[in-house]
Amino acid sequence: MLKFFKIKQLVVILLLVFYFSAYAQTPSACDNLDFSRGNFTNWVGHTSIYPYNTPGSNVNTSGIPYYYNTGIVPGRQTIISASVPDVYACGNVMTLPPGIPFCARLGNGGIGPWGDGVQWQRDYLSYTMAVSSSNSLLTYKYAVILQDPNKDQSGNPPHPPPIRPRFGVSIFDASGNLIDPKCGYYNVVVDSTVAGFRECILSDIQKGGGSVANPSGTVYRAWTAVGVDLRKFVGQNITIQFETWDCGLGGHFGYAYISARCDAFTLKAQTCTTNGSVLLMAPEGFSYKWFPGGETTKDINIFNANPGDTVYVELTTLTGCKTTVGTRIYPTLAIANFKANPSIVCLKDPIAFTDSSSSHYTGNNSSVPIVSWNWRFGDGSVSAVKNPTHTYTT
């Protein structure tokens, strides 16, 4: 029995005039900055202790202020590949940021398989990169857990800020100077009142299975993204350094999870939409104020724009550093359509699909080239060519 059917708009063609990936990074620009190799390639590790006059057994008698050893030390610099709740943050911090397969843990925490977390430890990780126009946006993410010595229940003496556990980020130029006191430096010393930090009390840590050397809880900050504008340093090298410090008296830990990436410092514009609007996406890791309009969200939709309109956004970092970035926008309408030959087709006979779609700027109807196609034939088959041929078997 001969079977045939009429091709209807069951076949779906998706036209892409613009493509944007939420986590696309040029592999050669900042190789392994995001730990995507699952190791510390291109990273430099350092381990140290507090100054020699700090009480404790691990002291230096040579007169050097503190030990500073180069090299990755498992347990103090550790690749993380599994996303699980961290018990020392009451389960409210995951060990990986959302959607990212690897990160690094810097330092160590309570008693367990990855160390006792104390003994005057200071741990560092640094990465040096050559800045170009293609990687002038540096975005780092961190989650930090610091044990609070002033909540210690064993009667330890008060700890002034200089010897409390801490976490720091520094960005240096090629001469070893901070690129900027606001844009290139972040340092937080354990304090339950610091904005953005929450407290995890000792009893909740213990309920979750955590064990600590000295009986006190923690303060923690969940994953936070910070963007850095490196456009002034194109053609130069910069170094980003992360560091964690334990308590200066040797009994309370501090550690962090870190990840980073680089991109071009631009606004992403999705101009091809079904209603002629334009979606603008700003870089991650800032607070936002858009002009015109004054919106404060990371991404905005613009309606009734004219081709060539200029939009820019003021970006403010966690530390109050400000920068701006703008773009001209060209709102575009795409109308997907096709023809099939023949339109009545026998099973197992090839059918030729011809793209008859169009795309144009809104407002002046100037034609815009279509650059890619994504055909879906309704039977699980797909194609990326402009005019495909497909054979239906059922």
Q: Could you give a quick summary of the protein structure above?
A:
The protein is an all-beta fold. The chain has 1 helix and 29 strands.
What does this structure look like?
- With 394 residues, the protein is mainly β.
- 2% of the residues lie in helices and 40% in strands.
- It contains 1 helix and 29 strands.
- Strands 4-3-7-13-9-10 form a 6-stranded antiparallel β-sheet, with no helix packed on it. Strands 5-6-14-8-12-11 form a 6-stranded antiparallel β-sheet.
- The chain starts with a strand and ends with a strand.
- The relative contact order is 0.18.
- Residues 1-28 and 52-65 have low confidence and may be disordered.
Q: What proportion of the residues form beta strands (DSSP E)?
A: 35-45%
Largest sheet: 6 strands, antiparallel
Poorly predicted residue ranges: 1-28, 52-65
- Spell the H/E element sequence: EEEEEEEEEEEHEEEEEEEEEEEEEEEEEE
Label the overall shape: elongated
The helix tally amounts to 1
| Rg on CA atoms, Å | 27 Å
Summing up helix and strand content along with how strands pair, one would put the structural category as mainly beta
Average pLDDT: 83
Helix content: under 10%
Total number of beta strands: 29
Q: Please report the distance between the alpha carbons of the first and last residues.
A: 14 Å
Query: Which strands sit side by side, in order, in the main sheet?
Result: 4-3-7-13-9-10
